[in-house]
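Question (not urgent): is this output format expected?
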Amino acid sequence: MQSVSSFERDRRIFGDLATADAHALARAFEARTIAKAQHLARQGDPDDKEYILLSGKMVSLIGDAEGREVCVGFFVGPCVITPNLARTAGATSLVSLRAETDGHAASVDATVLLDLMRGFPAIEDWANAILRAELARKTSREWSLAALKAKERLEWFRSRYPDHETLFNHSQISSFLGMTPVTLSRLRNPGRK
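Got this back:
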C-alpha cells in the first residue's frame, strides 16, 4: 500500500501545494488497497467521502432500475476522484465508483477536508481548482453529446483522453460517448464490414 509520505509529493494529486500544505492534506487521508470490481461508492448509498485514486483504474457509473449502466467518468491513478459536492446530493451518491483493476485509494471525510480548507488557504485553492476542473470536464462532455455527431464525439474523446481506448472497456467508452458499442466499433474500424 502506498504510504502517506509517498503520495503527498505527487504533483498529479497535489499540484503545486507547498510541502507543509501537502503534508497536512495527505495526513488526513487514509489509504487502502482496492480490488478489481470493488466500489468506493454506490449509487443511492450514503457517501460523505472525498477520494484519491493512488493507483489503478476506476469508472464512474450511473445505473437504472433494469441494471443498465452508463459510464460518466474515467479515472487513472494517481488522480483525484470527482469531488463529493459534484457527485452527491443530500449526502447520497449519485454515481457508483467501481475499480476496473486492483489498485490503491485514499479517502477522507468531506467535512474534514472542509475544515482543512478553512485553515489552509492553499488547500482551499487546491480543492476549488479541482472542482472547477471537474465542472469544466462535465460541461465539455455534455456539449460534445449535444453538439457533435458520433464520429466527432470519438475524435473529441481521443483528443481529451488519448490513452483511454486501450485502458478501458469499449462498452463503457461507447456509453460515455452516447452511442452503441456497434457504432463505436464501426467508427474505430471504418474499413471493416
